[in-house]
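Entry 14. Two folds queued back to back today. First construct below, sequence then structure tokens.
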Amino acid sequence: MDTIRIPNEATYSPIALTDLAIAAPLVSGLLLGATLPGRLIQAVTLSVYAGSAVQDWFQRLGVRRIDFLREFGADVQRMRSMPRDARQREVRELAERLNDGYTAERSELRDLAPRVDRHLTRFIAGITGQRVETSVEVRTFSFMQLAFPFALGAADILSGDVAIFKDTGVLQPHVVAHEFAHRKGYWRELDAQALAYLSLVSSGEPDLVQAALSERLHRSLHVLARDTGETWETAIRGLGLRAELEPEFMPIHAEARTPTSEINDIMRGVYDARMRLTGQNGLSDYDLGFTNFLYSFETSDTARQIPPDRGAVHA
């Protein structure tokens, strides 16, 4: 098995280079009354950023990417739609498995990131025969958070910078794995969702398996609730989740009830359009596409990969 190391040098900067480039002229103008020092910092920062991005791009040329259709029997444009009864059954089974396998184990982000990356790297290498090693650095702030207030995290596709915007509790390992999949070169959201899920659900670590199953439950339940017009709180309470788990799911779609929801709606529309322009199906890839993909994989008669036992609820 060969190894490719993507440097991701920009991720080791104390401040995201893009944030520094944006902020330097503004701060310089406010503190010094002149923007020239800030402009100089901005120019140097952008130069370092560009150098790091080019270096990463060059290394990525040697990466063997997964052919999703061949390996999983489905890809972003070719999936089977999960029947409603199958989705309802999946939700019930996932809730039961989460109740039975509940763990209160949690890791700080700095400890969680290397664990998640290890399993993601292992899973991809098991298919391609190539280890793609990347940075495990994670930020907790980025100006992208202000532009897309609904986002849980973000990955800069040029520098590999990853920021996690909020603690999502039981879902946190999946959010990190999703962004790290982007860092390894899988830019499509559905691809990142699938790789994050499959790597964690096959990890053998209870808290990581729990995160993957929770993400799958949350996404499938969101599809059902949206289709029926049921409120998120009602949908969650109807699952019969144990007392420790139910509060973990309640805040997930809380932004829809906040005063910023109008901004969220506008920016969601912008992001949805951006995804469609890049050959994706829009924001639906996060939930409808993701769950349809897993259903297609687990019921496929052409996939080369075998669905992990922990994730196969349709086998």
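Second construct, same run, same settings:
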Amino acid sequence: MADRQISRVREIDVAAVAGNGTLAAGVDRRALERCKDAIEKLGVLHTPVVGATEDGGRRLLSGQCELTALRELGVRKAEAVEVKIGGDAGDGAKLSLLLMSLRERPGALCEGHLIRDAMDAGVPRPEIQEMLGKSSSWVSNRLSLVSRLDANVYELVRGGILGARSAEEVARLPERSQFAFAEAAVREGLPKSAIAALVAGYRDETCPDAVRAQIVGDPRAALARMADTRRSVAEGGGRRGRGIREDAAGWRIKSAKSRVCAILRDISGVTRSEAESCLDALAELEAGLLELLAAVRGLVYPGKAEVGIGA
């Protein structure tokens, strides 16, 4: 075994490697700048993996961020792991999935597209699940994200205009509203945190239709409106007619309920180990809910003994 040569590192012509559009969609600008900075200071830490076809072509299988960084830095030659792949598109798709499972996760949207690419290339779904070590529900969750996202929004991601993580939030909106909202969010330069807050506000079952329309058409103004609402609630205000409810406690309870419903939808796609990591947080949440229930019942039924949660 000691005499066996297993290294496949070769010097490649950076410009001659065909990039991977699916992987490129998962690369955001900040990650790319960090990668360029790391390459200039330390060299290439994560060597790109390139598939060599029988006709002499070179196709990227892993390391899109590194390849793009090298090109932007003007590097002409670089080392890469080169592997031979056949003419069958499934060969490269399976290798990309394997590499994805070994490296840092590229994000749910990119994972979903890689899985769909592999299935389109004829890779059986059970084989994909086995390669990734993921459950059927996890794969379904990723594929569902891909199917929910409007195609025009995904083109914004592929063009580097909208971050993949932001697009994952946009996919939670009704498909008819996604592109208009994404365009407005890009135009206003909203970060992912703001996009997530706006999407959560839109999905709140108590959100008025007028506010939803503003979230889609003028997200920055809607964000300011939501901030005013939170400030007014914190100060004990309760002006009607501006999306601000007088019953602040009741509004927050209903909002919490809608978030629990969203978590229940998401939880179906996690693995057992991921579910186990949630147990401590859920125990704290349970304790907080019991304390809240006791406080509310104490106000409604003063002087009575504490009643259990199922009463």
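Quick look at the second one. The mean pLDDT is 80. The chain is about 60% helix and 5% strand.
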